[in-house]
Design goal:
Layout (H helix, E strand, L loop, with lengths): L11 E5 L11 E5 L14 E6 L6 H20 L6 E9 L7 E9 L2 H7 L3 E2 L12 H14 L19 E5 L4 E5 L39 H10 L1 H10 L4 H18 L2 H7 L13
Antiparallel strand pairs: 1-2, 2-3, 3-5, 4-5, 6-7, 7-8
Length: about 290
């Protein structure tokens, strides 16, 4: 709505994220706006992802959704190479049973092409890329951030199945190496949803166990990126406190981040858990 009252916009909805339907009763959606354009909040938008609450009548799943939204905001606090997001309260109606209605939080995610235009870049559409093609500093920041939130559900080098590169990342090209922009954080240890489990090949049993997956070639950028995260510490905690998560969830998120800051502020822990855990470049086969 606007200051003058509600605004009606005819949109189309597409279901996305089929995998989540294995444990969710509400699909993720893509909202497609009319070509003629709309005024107000959604002016100049063509399509937007809408992240929905997985199960509609669950306070726990409401917390999961709000936490993921906060992670988007946290990454945007660190870098402009991030997806903008906006929280919304959405009223739903089951198309098969008109009397079945409910209201949940959801959040919109900026369209990748709109993000690229905003940042003066283009979207890279390739099935896979090489390490040498990635922008080292920005790639290292993604790796450190994913370690901070306890997320291993991503790939810097290839898509999943037939997807374009990369899994839960989008690549931007500004002519100086591809810049990865992360999304889909719902498997993060910072959230620790009941349905999440790490990939078996990673050697960790729970998503709350942090595992650094950064490339060794980016280790020289660790000092600058860690300094950025230290400088923004109070802002990252404030994002949690200013969000709509309940006190219990906020305290849990604080404790999880506390563990990260203890690691990076202790030279021995930092070396053992991050610097030495980096992924070396594969040796060519003989």
């Amino acid at each position: 709505s606007t200051e003058t009252g509600p605004v009606e916009v005819p949109v189309q909805l597409q279901v996305r994220g089929n995998a989540r339907l294995e444990h969710c009763s509400v699909p993720g959606l893509r909202v497609i706006f009319p070509k003629s354009g709309v005024e107000g909040l959604f002016s100049d938008q063509r399509k937007l992802k809408l992240v929905t609450q997985c199960r509609q009548k669950s306070s726990q799943y409401e917390q999961y959704l709000l936490q993921e939204y906060l992670i988007y905001r946290m990454y945007a606090q660190l870098t402009d190479y991030s997806f903008k997001s906006r929280l919304a309260r959405v009223d739903f109606q089951d198309s098969r049973k008109k009397s079945r209605q409910w209201s949940n939080f959801a959040f919109f995610i900026e369209d990748k092409k709109r993000m690229a235009t905003r940042l003066g870049a283009t979207v890279v559409e390739k099935p896979r890329v090489k390490r040498s093609q990635l922008a080292p500093k920005e790639t290292n920041l993604v790796s450190v951030f994913q370690y901070m939130i306890g997320n291993t559900d991503y790939s810097m080098l290839k898509g999943e199945g037939e997807e374009a590169c990369c899994h839960n990342l989008r690549l931007l090209d500004k002519g100086e190496g591809y810049i990865p922009v992360p999304y889909d954080f719902d498997f993060a240890g910072l959230i620790n949803p009941g349905y999440a489990a790490p990939a078996a090949n990673l050697g960790i049993k729970k998503v709350t166990q942090r595992l650094y997956r950064g490339f060794c070639g980016g280790n020289n950028h660790l000092p600058d990126n860690l300094a950025l995260i230290r400088t923004n510490k109070s802002m990252l905690y404030a994002i949690i406190d200013d969000g709509k998560v309940n006190d219990r969830t906020a305290k849990k998120m604080h404790r999880y981040l506390d563990g990260f800051y203890k690691t990076i502020d202790d030279p021995k822990r930092l070396d053992k858990n991050i610097a030495q855990k980096c992924r070396p470049k594969p040796q060519p086969k003989k």
